[in-house]
Specification:
The structure is a homodimer of 325-residue chains. Chain A starts with a strand and ends with a helix. The radius of gyration of chain A is 22 Å and the shape is globular. The first copy, chain A, has 11 helices and 14 strands. In chain A, the strands form 3 sheets. Chain A has a 7-stranded parallel beta sheet, sandwiched between helices. The first copy, chain A, has a 4-stranded mixed beta sheet with strand order 8-9-10-11. Chain A has 325 residues and is an alpha/beta fold. At the A-B interface, helix 1, helix 3, helix 4, strand 13 and helix 10 of A face helix 1, helix 3, helix 4, strand 13 and helix 10 of B. Strand 13 of chain A pairs antiparallel with strand 13 of chain B.
Chain lengths: 325, 325
């Protein structure tokens, strides 16, 4: 047995807990520790918990640092910073900011000769990879991405900021009719409203004006105004009982015509009971690839589009050819 | 505009014609010629047709040679042979012989410092890649591959060898109930019979004993005996009218549990009006990757599991990050 890949986690929210679970499903890896801004004494996890301040001291014990913070404020700062000292993997998912994030991580990782594998997960990540593959195989075609049914944390948070809202959960739901139109290969132009429905479950404060809350949600620009939005008021008990999980998923569908009139369709879909545990599983496979790249002496920022897929696997190239090809 | 990638085709059957069509859909490529064992005067194609004997003379005009022969007898000989002189791409699909084919191509390609990108297409090829990705992300899960609905050339040929059969077309059809059981995540053990139906359309010679033909087909070991096989006798007119196309497709479904009991499902599917045109489209994208690897000075045998996905694309890494990630 070769030595296990030593993983450390920075940030212990849903994603960090998912990474902890995923490492246990990969026998070629071991979890060195969980690093947190909170008091490590209050963290209940299977590995040792440490304060973030202790991270640099543990540098020699860590092969790959998996960053489990958020894309809004944590990762833009943490990824370039920690790429100076570690091979890192992150799931930065603010699509429009990826080129900027890549550049910052690349500069930092190149200077210190580390690997920074960024924007992994499923979108960006596996969905990006599928869009790339489909578009390369069938270049005269069109790709469509649908998300859901699943919980959007950003949209749930937006509802919680409405006055009178105590708790909220927003499900993004793909419109079945739009999926079917795409699958037939008609290449429709679809508006945001035609692609997804926004289904909102809201716990209102006692005595709050639910009509006003529903109206504010439905007309919120950037989040709900461009969609058919449904608002359901429920009790906190119902919320806790029926909406405590974080399912998600989606579809990448690519259709094209080859030759005279031969229609070709590629479809990739995910159906996930737990979005953070799946994203974490991608991060962990990517950590293996980052470790492999680092051992080869490669460095700089990378994305899943740059990695030989075999590097995600613990198996040898021979075994993969024999068993999977 | 950078110089176009100069493609040559060896073998002008369904696959070769598909490559000719696919090259036209990729503006960064140009077709140098079609090389055939038949008399080139009898070949009607958009590019110049040459005798196979002329291939070596044209060496300096060809960046990548796409081998479009069959896996039974052509490719085991041609791929190692032509990898001595060209960067090649093939779609060798005899799964159990892939390690041997890889070794032969690797030796030949390494000696002459060429790239031999083998066993591309969709299975092996894109399906292999999906099995790899899914298994790396969710290692404690199970992958299932289903084929169809589509025409199996090998099974159609097997029927044509039965005495009294004039023409035949065999459709491999996935069993819907099995697909559903797999999707639920119950990880069933499925026999060949439980996974696929074999649906056969047969034109019998005048006066042939159709009961005997049906019986011989249904009991043919290796091809039909292990399946629920249906035999339909039709006229040559019906065959020509209803069964002249070569549709195919299939599913790679991977299910797993993460954490306590969160079920996660990844599904990749193809629905193809034309199997050879789709396979050809994969070959052509792979030719671009082979060219890129060659320009980097890499050589030896490779498979789709070894290639950075971005190498399949004509676009720059920056553009891919900006538009697809």
């Amino acid at each position: 047995m070769t030595e296990k890949i030593r993983i450390a986690i920075l940030g212990y929210g849903n994603l960090g807990r998912g990474v902890e679970l995923a490492v246990r499903q990969n026998p070629d890896m071991t979890l060195v520790g969980v690093f947190t801004r909170r008091d490590p004494k209050n963290i209940a996890c299977t590995a040792q918990a440490y304060s973030t301040d202790a991270l640099l001291e543990k540098k020699d014990d860590i092969d790959v640092l998996i960053l489990c913070g958020g894309s809004a404020t944590d990762l833009p700062e943490q990824s370039p910073l920690y790429a100076k000292h570690f091979h890192i993997v992150d799931s930065f998912d603010n699509h429009s900011q990826i080129p900027k994030h890549f550049a910052a991580c690349d500069e930092s990782a190149k200077q210190s000769q580390h690997v920074a594998l960024i924007s992994t997960g499923w979108d960006p990540g596996m969905f990006s990879l599928q869009r790339l593959l489909a578009g390369c195989i069938l270049p005269q075609g069109q790709s469509y991405t649908f998300w859901g049914k699943g919980v959007s944390q950003g949209h749930s948070d937006a509802i919680r900021r409405v006055a009178g809202v105590r708790d909220a959960r927003q499900y993004t739901v793909p419109v079945e009719a739009a999926l079917q139109r795409v699958r037939t290969g008609e290449n429709p132009d679809l508006t945001a409203r035609e692609k997804h429905i926004r289904d909102c479950f809201v716990v209102a404060e006692d005595g709050a004006d639910t009509a006003r809350i529903a109206d504010e949600i439905k007309n919120m620009p950037g989040y709900f105004a461009d969609y058919d939005t449904f608002v359901h008021f429920i009790s906190q008990e119902e919320m806790d009982r029926d909406h405590s999980r974080l399912p998600h998923g989606g579809f990448v569908i690519h259709t094209a015509t080859t030759g005279q009139a031969n229609r070709q369709r590629i479809e990739y879909s995910l159906q996930l009971d737990s979005n953070p545990e799946f994203t974490a599983s991608v991060l962990v496979a990517c950590a293996r690839a980052a470790h492999r790249l680092a051992k080869e002496g490669q460095y700089g920022a990378k994305t899943v589009l740059d990695i030989p897929p075999a590097y995600l696997s613990a198996k040898s190239a021979e075994e993969l050819r024999k068993t999977l090809l």
